[in-house]
Design goal:
- The complex is a heterodimer of chains A (about 120) and B (about 200).
- By secondary structure, chain A is mostly helical.
- Chain A has four helices and no strands.
- The N and C termini of chain B lie far apart (about 40 Å).
- Helices cover about 80% and strands about 0% of the residues of chain B.
- Classes of the chains: A mainly alpha (about 120), B mainly alpha (about 200).
- At the A-B interface, helix 1, helix 3 and helix 4 of A face helix 1, helix 6 and helix 7 of B.
C-alpha cells in the first residue's frame, strides 16, 4: 500500500516538479536564498554551494522516485507478457512458443538489470 | 492470490491508474484549469476515481467470498456510472475504464460466461487505442477468452469455428507480447535516459 501511495505521490510530485523546474536552477536559487533569510528573520542563510547541493539532492530524490514508478510499471507489463506467452505456448508449442519465451526472458533480464527484479 | 494481496494489488492498480493519468496529462503539457473551473474539474474527476476505487474494493471482498457475479456487478457500477465530462476522453477515466473492463472480462471467464467476457474485453479496447500497458493487458485477456471459446466450440463439435477462434487467440496473444515488450522498452529507456542526464 505504501508503494501504491508513493507512486501516486511521485506522479503528482513529478508533474509539479517539472513546472517548478525553471525556478530551481542553481542561479535563481542562489538569488532566492538571501531573500528567504531576510523574510524569515534569521532563517538559514545558504551558501551557493549548499543551495546547489540541495538542488542536486532534490533532483536525485525525484529521479529515484521516478525510477521506482517505472520499475513497478515495467514489472506489471512483464507479468502480462509472461501470461500471454504462457497461453501462446499452450496453443502452439512450436517455434512461436520458443520465440515468445525468448522474448519474455530477454524482457525479464532487462527488468532485472534495471530494477533488480520484480516482487512476486 | 491471498486476500491481503488482492487488496494491495487493487490499491496498486488504482494508484498506478491515478499516477499514470496525472503523468499523462503532465507530460502532454496540458494547461491546468484555473479558478472556478479547476474546482469543478477536479471534483468531478476525483469523485469518479474515488467511486471506481470503492467499487474495486467491494469487488475484492466479494471475490474473496467466491461471489463472482457479485464482484462483476460491483465493477459494472463503475462502467455504468455517470462520467465526469461526457464527450471528453480524459486519460485518467479511460485508463480506469480499460482496467475495469479487463477485470470484468477476467471474472466473467472464471464464471464460465465466455460470450460476456468477449463483449466486455472488446468494450475495454475502445478505451485503450494506444499501445499502452492497458491495451496489452486487454489483448492478453482477450486471447485467453478466445482460447477458452475455442475449447468450448471444439467440445461442442464445431471444429471449424474452434480453429478460427484458436487462430484469433494466437494473434491476440502475440499482440499482447509485442505491446508489453514495447511498454517495458519505453519505460526502461526513459529511465536510462534520465540517468544519463
Amino acid at each position: 500500500m505504501r508503494r501504491a501511495l508513493a507512486l501516486l505521490a511521485v506522479a503528482v510530485a513529478a508533474c509539479g516538479g517539472s513546472e517548478a523546474a525553471p525556478s530551481q536552477t542553481p542561479s535563481t536559487t542562489e538569488k532566492a536564498a538571501p531573500e528567504a533569510t531576510t523574510a524569515g528573520g534569521g532563517a538559514t542563510n545558504l551558501a551557493p554551494e549548499v543551495a546547489g547541493a540541495r538542488n542536486d539532492l532534490d533532483r536525485a530524490e525525484r529521479d529515484v522516485a521516478a525510477a521506482q514508478a517505472d520499475c513497478a510499471a515495467a514489472c506489471r507489463a512483464l507479468s502480462s507478457m509472461e501470461r500471454a506467452a504462457e497461453h501462446l505456448c499452450a496453443l502452439d508449442g512450436g517455434a512461436e512458443c520458443t520465440r515468445a519465451r525468448e522474448r519474455v526472458e530477454a524482457a525479464r533480464e532487462r527488468v532485472r538489470a534495471a530494477c533488480g527484479g520484480c516482487e512476486r | 492470490m491471498k486476500p491481503a494481496r488482492v487488496q494491495l494489488a487493487a490499491l496498486a492498480v488504482a494508484a498506478v491508474v491515478l499516477a499514470g493519468g496525472v503523468l499523462a496529462r503532465c507530460s502532454r503539457g496540458e494547461p491546468r484549469p484555473t479558478g472556478d473551473d479547476a474546482a469543478v474539474v477536479d471534483t468531478e474527476l476525483l469523485a469518479f476515481l474515488s467511486l471506481a476505487r470503492a467499487h474495486h474494493h467491494e469487488a475484492n471482498l466479494l471475490e474473496q467470498d467466491g461471489d463472482l457475479p457479485g464482484a462483476i456487478a460491483a465493477l459494472r457500477k463503475i462502467v455504468d456510472a455517470p462520467k465526469p465530462h461526457p464527450g471528453e476522453r480524459l486519460p485518467e477515466e479511460e485508463e480506469v475504464l480499460a482496467d475495469t473492463f479487463a477485470r470484468i472480462a477476467d471474472l466473467e471467464l472464471r464464471n464460465k460466461d465466455t460470450d460476456a467476457a468477449r463483449r466486455d474485453v472488446e468494450s475495454g479496447l475502445l478505451h485503450a487505442p494506444d499501445p499502452t500497458y492497458f491495451r496489452g493487458h486487454l489483448l492478453e485477456v482477450y486471447g485467453i477468452v478466445e482460447e477458452k471459446r475455442s475449447d468450448d466450440l471444439r467440445d461442442g463439435g464445431r471444429s471449424d469455428e474452434a480453429e478460427v477462434a484458436r487462430a484469433h487467440a494466437r494473434t491476440l496473444l502475440h499482440q499482447a507480447v509485442d505491446i508489453q515488450e514495447r511498454v517495458i522498452g519505453r519505460l526502461l529507456d526513459a529511465g536510462a535516459d534520465a540517468g544519463t542526464r
